[in-house]
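## retry 2 of 3
previous attempt timed out at serialization; input unchanged, resubmitting
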Amino acid sequence: MILRVLIAIAALAGLAGCVDLSDDPDAEPNTVWQNTYSPDVPYYNVTGAAVAAYGSPSAQGGVVGTVTANDGGFIRNCNATLDWCEISFGRLGETGWVDMRAFGGRAS
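## retry succeeded, writing output
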């Protein structure tokens, strides 16, 4: 019930597409980020150095892995401001949130 109230508030505020509804089985997935980033293009670490991947869209989210230079993968989700995205990376298919200033997409 509380989740549905929060969704209604977000919809009234114009943020409905930016709300993560992954815990709600009836919810639509967050696709607003797809207006900026393509889900069909891999995004790679372009910094030349390893960058941390976090458990949430913030440097305070706890490190869950490291994305080496030129490594990366496909975006799974992004936060409302599109500065942090959750990507798949590494040989084992790890996922984590990364600061998108360190990443660039490569069309095949």
